[in-house]
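Researcher: I need the complex structure. Ligand is GBH. Inputs:
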Amino acid sequence: MPTTKSLPEDFLWGFATAAFQIEGSTDVGGRGKSIWDDFSRLPERTLDGKNGDVATDSYKRWKEDIALLRLYGVRAYRFSISWPRIIPLGGRNDPTNPEGIQFYSDFIDELIYNGIVPFVTLYHWDLPQGLHDRYGGWLKKDEITKDFVRYSRVCFGSFGNRVKYWLTINEPWCISVLGYGRGVFAPGRSSNRTRSPEGDSSTEPWIVAHNVILSHALAVQLYRDEFQPTQGGIIGITLNGDMTIPYDESPENIDAAQHALDFAIASLSQDPIYLGYYPEYLKQVLGNHLPEFTAEEWNIVKGSSDFYGMNTYTTNLCKAGGNDIFQGFVDYTFTRPDGTQLGTQAQCAWLQTYPTGFRQLLNYLYKRYQIPIYVTENGFAVMNETNMPIDRAINDTNRVEYFRGNCEVMLAAITEDGVDIRSYFAWSLLDNFEWADGYSTRFGVTYVDYETQKRYPKGSGKFVSKVR
Ligand code: GBH
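Model: Output:
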């Protein structure tokens, strides 16, 4: 097991959360609406029919959450700021909300007072509803880029004297594909008319991805020009991406695994941001649906992240010939040709344990982009945990095994493979609002009893605390 001695001296480790998944209090403290508020209240948008109105009640219980972090002894905490708490209507000419700014300011002070480094995400999917209503939110480049930059400016100006680690945007692929392609996340747009009255899954995801990347890059440019010189922090984006391996040794499945990587990992943001171009396979598949950046925009996008922000959960076996464009026409499975499973199955269909894949992905990314990696999310949802009595749920052996396996290979990647890894954030500090899954899927290292909001540390919380 990794120990303090084996990890780099200043390695940041801790837990991660996101505002909408934990805060609740959606109409408290001057907060405006976010696109998730109403979306999660619509029938059949979440598996258990529940919404984000209360979540883990962390807007009110924030001191309790920090006490928990202290109990676990973490070095750092990754959380996100809710844009509609800072600017209720969201836009560059709309008023800011002093109460919202004060909330995060106090939160940051309390973290620092407890010796915990704040690692802050500006955008984890809770777009102000006002911007969606006004001009279609992420679809409208000239508006959203300016509004995101202004929001970022308010945050750098209000918190940047104490926050030295910034993430602009969480997972462009999810925002684009799940929000505007599959329509399973807010705002739920899709060509599928049983899901949504509006939307075009063949064009909108790529327009949104384009605008998200540009907004990120412009916020970074602002930080570097006006804040970094005096505040001295670092800034980047965080990208989801899971390892892919061929289902078998057939040439078409070997190609499929690379195509899946090109599509899911390299494509939408990674190659543009770190290398300054799109991978060929993406251009082939999307053709003229892929919006090009102008030369001036490429200048801003290329190199717009001080590090590689990595959210990763699993590894997929890949077969050629799938019909899902969002996976680059590759089928995913966890079942090997001989019928065995790749790893232990989680509550969510898309997730199994496979530490070897995590090590391979760390190596692949480091070799491809040659930039320090910050692991900003990695976690596991134990099967059926939500139906267990609390005393059984907190005995989360499968989650402990997931973290044990991944932390071991991460250490090997650092010490044996020479990969430069600077942080590890386990997802998540608490069981919380798991988007379209509602509360039926639990990712926390702390059990939350939603009846009482009482928190119970799980075995995994205690385990990860020892991994230093
Ligand atoms: C993270 O995304 C999120 O950042 C976090 O908020 C969330 O709580 C956490 O995952 C756990 O889910 O079957 O087509 O819907 C991880 C990236 C990408 C993983 C989408 C699940 C499902 C693909 N996610 N993927 S699909």
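Model: Summary of the prediction. The CA atoms of residues 56 and 451 lie 10 Å apart.
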